[in-house]
Fold each of these.
Amino acid sequence: MEIAPLLLEGGPYERGLVHGESLRRPIAELLERWKEALAEDFAMDADEAIGRFLAGTGFPDAIGRHTPGLLEEVRGIAAGAGQPYETMLAFQYLDEFWAGREVITEGHCTSIGLDPRPGEPAWLAQNMDLESFRDGYQVILRLNPSGAEPEALVLTNAGMIGLNGVNAGGLGICCNTLIDCNSRLDGLPVACVVRGVLAQPDPGAAEAFLRRIPHACGQNYLVGDPQRIVDLECSANQVTPYRSDTIGGAVWHANLPLANTDTRPGCAETSTRAEKSPHRIDSEARFDSVARQLQQAVSAPRLDILKRILASQDPPENPICSLKTGPGFHARVSMFSFAVTIMELSARPALHASFTPGDTGSYTRLGFE
C-alpha cells in the first residue's frame, strides 16, 4: 500500500486544524475505541478516568515550558476534529497512561541504530508496537518548515502529534518504553519529546534537549544523523547513555533499561525464568533475537537487513514483528506491530515506512526532495 503523507503547513494551531479537519472521522472512531479500552483497563467510565488523570498530572506546564507550540497544535486538532480539547490532550499521553497503571503487564517496540560507515549512511529503524485497536488509523505527517523548525516526516495515528520521525536535516528519532523506570507527573510526555527532538538542528542539540527536560516516563531514545547514532535511556531522575560493545557500529533496544538504574521498586532483574514477568521475558527475547540476526548479517544491503530483522517471527512466542493473531506475547495482550519505520540518515534523508507488519515488500519511500 502506497502511503501518502498528510501535509501540515503554517503555525502550530493551523497545523493542528488541518490535521483535525482532514481526519475528523478517523479521529472520532479512534477516540471511541480508545475510550472503550480505558474503561476496561481502569474499570470506570472513560471520561472519568481521563478527568482524574488530567487532574493528577502537570504535563501541560512542562509542555508549555519546553515545547509550547504543541499545546496550540493539540488545540487546533481538537477544533478541527470537533472534539473536546481536554480529550485530545489526554489522547497524546500514550505511554504516560501505561506508566500510570498500578500493574505492569506490557512492553512494546524494538529499535535498531546502525552507525555510518564508508560509502553507507547511518540508519535508524523501529517496529512501533501499539494496541490492536489502533490498526487502520496509521498516518504519516509531513510538517512543512516553520520558523527555525525544519521539515519533518512523522509517524503517528490519527489525532496524535507524533510517535517517531526524521527531519530534513537527517536527524531521526526512535523510542521504546522503559516502563520499569521511574516516572513523574510533571514531566514532558513522550509525544512532545519526539516532536521537540525533531525541531533540533543536530544530534548534539537533540542530546542537550533530552538531558535538559524532565521526563514524564521511562523511555529509550535512539537519535541519529548522518554522522552518528546516540542512545539515551531516560527516566524521572536519570538520563543514561547506552551502547553495547558486542557488535561494532550497531545499537539496538527493546523495553528493559540496560544502563539506567532509576527503576521502580520490585523491577530488579531476576535470575531464573520462573521468576521473570512475561514483560521481561518478551523484551529479553526480542533483544537477543536482534543481536543474533545482526551478527549473522553479512553482505546484504543494510536496508534489506533491517527489513528482514523487523519482519522476523523468531522466536514465535516473542517475535520482533508482532501480528494481531498467533502465539506471540503481544497478540495475547492485544498489541501488534502498528507500523515499521526505517530512516535513511544521509545527505538526502528518507523515511521508509510500512503499515503492514511482516511484509518486506510493502514499504513506501518518502523523501524531502
Amino acid sequence: MNDAAHDLHAPHFIGIGGAGMSGLAKILAVRGASVSGSDSKESETVLALRALGATVHVGHAAEHVPDGTSSVVVSSAIRADNPELAAARERGIPVVHRSDALAALMGGRRALAVAGTHGKTTTTSMLAVALGELGLDPSYAIGGDLDAPGSNAHHGVGEIFVAEADESDRSFHKYAPEVAIVLNVELDHHANYASIEEIYESFETFVGRITPGGTLVVSADHDGARELTARVNGREGLKVVTVGAAEDADVRVLSVVARGMTSEVTVLLDGTELAFTVSVPGRHYAHNAVAALAAGVALGVPAADLAKALGAYTGVRRRLQLKGEAAGVQVIDSYAHHPTEMAADLDAIREAATGRVLVVFQPHLFSRTQQLAEEMGRALALADASVVLDIYPAREDPIPGVTSELIIDAARRAGADVTAEHDFAAAPALLAGLARPGDLLLTMGAGDVTNLGPEILEHLANVASNV
C-alpha cells in the first residue's frame, strides 16, 4: 500500500456490491489490503470479491464491521442511520467517502478522469480496453462491468490510472487528473443541483483540478460542453482540446458510417485523416471513442496505435448489450435513464434494426421523473412501441403525485404507442406477446429492469415452441 492510501489497509465497504464500491474494493484486495464489506443481497459481484479474499456479509449489522478496521468506506447512497455507519462513528473508525478512496488509489499514477452527464462508463471502458490492448496495463475504475462480474476495475502495473468521475454528488472535485474528458454538461441529479448554473460551476471546479500543464478534452458539439469550454478557455497551464463533428473542433469527426452493430469512424487529427472501427452501434458511441482517442494522445499514446486498439472494445454490460435471441427477436439491455441517453440509444438501435424497435422502460428516481418526465416521454416516441414500468426508487423516498404516468402521458402526447405495466412480474409475458420476428427489444433503465431480459427470452422461446 502507498502512503496516500495508508488508512485503507483494512477497509470495510458499506454497499460493497455497488458498481463504484466493488471496483475500489477489488483494487485494494489485489494490492494486499484486508477488505471486508456488506451488501443487501448476494450477487455475482459479491462472489467475485469473495474469490479475491474479501469478507462480504449479506445484510447490514453493526457486528459486520470487524475489529481492526482501518476505515469504513461509504458512498452518497448510504443513509445516515445505517447500523454499520453508526458503529464506525461510535468506535471512532474514520469514515471515508468513496471518492476520497478513489483519489487515494490514483495517487502516484498518471490519472485520466472521464466526466459528463452521460457516456462516462463507455468512454472509460474504451480507454481501459485500448490501453490494455497496447500493453500499457492501466489501472482503472469503471461504473460498469466490461465482460464479467468484477471486471469494472483492475490494478495494473502501468503508470496510467483511468477513472470514471462522478458529478452527481460533486465527488469528482476530489480528483487531480493529468487529462480530463468532459463529454457533455446537462442538468441532472436534481436532488443535488438546483440549476444548470450550479452544474456549470461544479464542472468548472472539476476542470480547475486538472494538474498544471494538463489537458481538458471536451465536446465541441454539445451546447453545455461548449459553454463550459468558453468559461475555462485561457486558464493558465490548461490545454483544451475540442472533439466532435463541429467545423471548429480540434479533433474533427468527418464521418460515422453504421455497419450493423458496428460503426466506421473517420477523424481529422493534427491534419491527418484516421479511420477506425468501433464495435458498438450509434453515433454517440463513436463520438465517445473519439474523445477516448484524443485523451490517449494527450497522454502521449500514438494516435494510429490507439485508434486500432479501440477496435478491441466490444462493449460494457448494460450498454446496448445483446442478451440473446429467441423466436427471431433480439433482446438488448440499455442502462439509459436520462432522456438524452434514451434518445441516443434508440437512435443507435434504429440504425442497426431491420424490424421494429420495442422498449420496456423503467424510470429511475422520483426526482428525475419529476423534472424530466416530458423529455422521457418524447424519447420513448422514437420507439415503435413501449411499455413503461413503475419508478425504481433506488435511494429516494416517493414524491406525492410523481409516478410513471407522467412519462406515459407525455409519450402519448408525443404520438407514442405506450402501455403501462404496474406488475413487474407480468412484464415479460406482455413483451413476448408484443414482439414478432425481426424486432429488437430493449430493456431500458438503471434499475432492475435488466433482470427482465432472460425472462423475456424464455417467454419468446416458449411461444415459438408452441407455434
